[in-house]
Sequence to fold (522 residues):
Amino acid sequence: MTTRIETTARKIASLNPATGELVAEFEPATAQQVEAAVAGARSAQPGWNEIGLERRARILGNFQRLLEDRKSALAQVITRETGKPVVEGLVSEILVVLDTARFCRNQAVPLLVEEAVPHGNWALKTKSGRIRREPYGVIGIIAPWNYPFAIPATESLAALVAGNAVVLKPSERTSCTALALRDLFSEAGVPGDVFQVVVGDGITGSALIHSSIDKLVFTGSLRTGRQIAQAAASRLLPVVLELGGKDPMLVLEDADLEVASSGAVWGAFTNAGQACLSVERCYVDRSLYEPFLAACVRKTRRLRIGNGQAAPIDVGPMIGEHEVQSVESQVADAVSRGARVLAGGARLPELGSNFYAPTVLADVTHDMRVMREETFGPVLPVMAFASESEAIRLANDCEYGLGASIWTRDRRRGERLAGHIHAGTVMVNDAVSCFGIAEAPHGGFKMSGLGRTHGKWGLEEMVRVKYVDSDRMPGRKKLWWYGYGEAFQTEGLIDLMFARRVGHRLRGAWKFLTALKSTERL
Ligand code: NAD
Fold:
């Protein structure tokens, strides 16, 4: 049974990766349909903005309640399209979104309200300034398939509460999940034109970038992210790019071996290893290397692999044939260069064509592709290090910088080392789960992307900051307008504000006040 996505000229299909069953088939939106959706969103957005932050926050409260009611049915939709265990759909998708709705409902009002900007420039003291956070208008969101609910829903919640309309282009593999999200928003009270879904593939995504959206939030691969950045540059479209990762895990000599090995196995294999933040490179202090490997292998062999709809299951299938081949090719490259396969290392055809056994590799090096390229599958490559500085050097020897984790019984030491890691998030004694903290920013350094989603930083991405400056003395001409006096009088002003000696300040005050009296402003 094949599980390849067939993207014909006018069809995209959602397939169950565990069984190959056709879940649904769609016609991708044309460029004209995308532009029509954006135009509809643009006309509806001012009304949505005008109802105000409090009312929007209440509508998100409705969304939260509806989602809680529908969680079981929605988890089934997610599992049918992605193959992930239903438990993962509930925890890493639905719970994350519920918590983001809670955050937006409670925090958006204090974080997005108008704010005074007190300033210390004495010469401009008559001015009072305020920050207004205004919605961009229409936010385009392009989403991947690996967290087809959590990613677009958390981004949309932030965009909507800030007063924007949203046009979402989901992955061609997970249209049903995106349409379920649309239905939830609509039932919660978000007007239909304010949140729209245009189903389709890369061509549809490209049409969205070239439409009249005001900002784009893209989550996906580095390859597509680069193309998007180039397309956006031509019209200076603001973009947030959430791209790939190659997260290192550093196991120091004082780590709890039992805890760290469980963390490595979960961090590498959750969602069948198809998580941007998954553990992709594991570096272990030489003194723990062999016992750590033995514990990882023992725990990997106990994992229950199968169709995510069957219970209880730990690891589901990968998403498709192309992705399985990519993992196979990285593992083959590693083995040909001397890596040892301690667990897995092959497909599980008896379960279905997309099942790949969770794999533990030992004796890997940075010459191997599995330690340099993103691995979007269940592979845990492990390497020994001799010193803390070597561990940091290896962790940073990578073009990506999304997340990282440090495992030690000494939390202070872990937090200190976090300062040396080039990544957007560093976790001490856990991996991946930071994505579930609604208040925490998510985003990468280096090739892992630009900008942030989640938390107050994610909300700030959804607004234009406008500084409104209002002069308290509207009837007075300003000191710095034409009718300049002698330069030395201006020096007086600078001395008054910044001279180090008190005497110079006083002399500056005198020069300046004299000038003030004698200079006529035009
Ligand atoms: P992808 O880049 O193939 O596709 C992502 C989305 O972009 C899809 O909706 C796709 O249809 C669309 N697309 C493809 N080509 C396009 C084009 N030329 N113009 C506009 N849109 C286009 O990625 P994927 O395979 O769906 O997802 C896996 C990747 O996403 C991995 O690299 C993973 O690390 C990354 N990811 C990153 C994060 C993060 O938060 N940093 C989260 C999840 C996934």
